[in-house]
Amino acid sequence: MKKLFKQIIFIACLGLFVITQTGCFALLVGAAAGAGGYAWVKGALEQNFNANVTQVHSAILRAMQELKLAVIEDNYDHLKGKVIAEMASGEKVTTDINAMTEKVTKVKIRVGIVGDRSKSDMILTAIKKNL
Predict the structure, then answer these.
(1) Do residues 124 and 47 make contact, with C-beta atoms less than 8 angstroms apart?
(2) How far apart are CA 108 and CA 93, in angstroms?
(3) For residues 60 and 84, is the Cβ–Cβ distance under 8 A?
(4) pTM for this one?
(5) Other residues' Cβ atoms within 10 Å of the Cβ of residue 71
(6) What is the mean pLDDT of the chain?
């Protein structure tokens, strides 16, 4: 009985290790967060919105205008898009828009080359306000 218990614990630990090492764990956590969750990933802030690409794109443009960021590139279609703006300091703000489904859109915000979390949070708040 004791040996069986140890084997079960070992298999459970091994399974948990495999899940966390293959990236599936991040997928599970992201799925659990749903469309409202956000994450800081490799210098970019990511958020899923319950809206289509057109609605999110419009909200991004309004947010950039509200924050007085100069839009220097703007292109999108019904599946993806990109808006690049420039802050008064010269830092570039890149927002990538990707349709996850017809009604869920992922936005990735990167400020500068390596990312600035506080400025990305400020931009994300403005996008949410305009959506």
Answers:
(1) yes
(2) 10
(3) no
(4) 0.71
(5) 14
(6) 84
Give DSSP secondary structure letters for the chain: -HHHHHHHHHHHHHHHHHHHHTTHHHHHHHHHHGGG-EEEETTEEEEEESS-HHHHHHHHHHHHHHTTPEEEEEEE-SSEEEEEEE-TTS-EEEEEEEESSSS-EEEEEEETTT--HHHHHHHHHHHHHH-
The contacts of residue 79 (CB under 8 Å, 6+ apart) are 53, 98, 99
Share of the chain above pLDDT 90, in %: 66
In whole angstroms, give the CA distance from residue 103 to residue 55: 10
- Of 27-36, 47-56, 89-98, give the lowest mean pLDDT range: 27-36
The pair of structure tokens assigned to 1 is 């009985």
